[in-house]
Amino acid sequence: MNRAFNRKKDKSWMHTPEALAKHFIAYNAKFLGHTEVDQPKGTEVVRDAVRKLKFQKHIKKSEGQKIPKMELQISIYGVKILDPKSKEVQHNCQLHRISFCADDKTDKRIFTFICKDSESNKHLCYVFDSEKCAEEITLTIGQAFDLAYKKFLESGGKDVETRKQIGGLQKRIQDLEAENSELKKQLQVLEEQLMIAQVPPGNSISSKTPTDIFDMVPFSPMTPLVPLPASNGSAPPPPARPSEIRRDLFGAEPFDPFTCGAADFPPDIQSKLDEMQEGFKMGLTVEGTVFSLDPLEGHC
Questions:
Q1: Which H or E run includes 111?
Q2: Using one digit for the tens of pLDDT, what is the confidence trace for 245-255?
Q3: What distance in Å separates the CA atoms of residue 45 and residue 66, rounded to the nearest whole number?
Q4: Which stretches make up the PID domain (predicted)?
Q5: What is the pLDDT of residue 83?
Q6: Which of 65-74, 148-157, 173-182 has the highest mean pLDDT?
Q7: Is residue 110 a contact partner of residue 12, using CB atoms and an 8 Å limit?
Q8: What's the CA gap between 17 and 181, in Å, rounded?
Q9: Distance CA 181, CA 257 (A)
């Protein structure tokens, strides 16, 4: 295997600097996967990784699984591995983290590169299978390294430091978003616990006086009718009495047998009642016929 950046002097770069500096070069290749390696570079290191992933490839084929195709976007900023249909980024390998790149001279279809993972800080070897472009992809990554190094010298190293700071800030933002999401979950749990604590227990409801379907307390003959206190705790006002006594159709006051006594009748009515009582004692005359209340003297 050969390192991509140690190209031969008689071999020129394949792309213009503007294509890699302002845009990217895209390739399609089958992605065999990535595996962790012990060293950041070395021919034997990548050879072992290729052997391991090829063996996994044969196992997947025997199980009927297809090797996924990926799109590689190569620029001076790194190598992006995307889904060719959805364009979703599966892996983003920054160029300053790539430490080794090579194509297999014994198998023209295979090329690899080693990249240090930004989260775990482990060295991962990425292996691809391209039927026609394996060497070209390796050289394109080498050209991106060459242009990035020239830009680094021109900027005095400030550009790389800026990208590192941006990467660190992006990582910090991701951590803060994850922490914010966790705090929201904890807040939601506390709100649910507070709502449960505010609900009165079930046995407190049974102490309340039962009511009917009209929300009225049922009448009990054993319970005296006691006026309920007002809502503010003060004594209830006495029942209002009408300011004017109601009269019937003929202008007379209504008769109340529960409140009226013998002395309450007017003199003329009282005399009539006395006469009627006396008549019942002596006998009753109806249209000239006398009925006696005494059974011995009764006749028609």
A1: strand 110-116
A2: 566 666 666 66
A3: 26
A4: 25-155
A5: 94
A6: 65-74
A7: no
A8: 43
A9: 81
Radius of gyration of the chain (CA): 53
pTM of the model as a whole: 0.50
Which residue type sits at 189? V
Give the closest residue to 138 by CA, choosing from 74, 51, 50. 74
Q: What are phi and psi of 138, to 5 degrees?
A: -65, -40
Mention every residue, 6+ apart, whose C-beta is less than 8 A from residue 210: 217, 218
Average pLDDT over residues 58-78: 91
What percentage of the chain carries pLDDT values higher than 70? 60
* Exposure on the CB side of residue 104, measured as CA atoms within 13 A: 21
Question: Mean pLDDT over residues 58-70, rounded?
Answer: 89
- Parallel/antiparallel/unpaired status of strands 110-116 and 123-129: antiparallel
Report the alpha-carbon distance of residue 293 to residue 281 in Å, rounded. 7
218 secondary structure, DSSP code: P
> Tens digit of pLDDT for each residue in 24-36?
999 999 999 999 9
Q: Is residue 125 a contact partner of residue 110, using CB atoms and an 8 Å limit?
A: no
Name residue 45's amino acid.
V
Query: Where would I find the H helices in the chain?
Result: 17-21, 43-62, 134-155, 158-198, 267-282
Q: Please, how many CA atoms are within 13 Å of residue 167, restricted to the half-sphere of its CB? A: 17
**DSSP string of 63-92, one letter each residue:** TTPPPPEEEEEEETTEEEEE-TTT--EEEE
The number of angstroms, rounded, from the C-alpha of 129 to the middle of its chain's C-alpha atoms is 43
Q: How many CA within 13 A on the CB side of residue 24?
A: 13
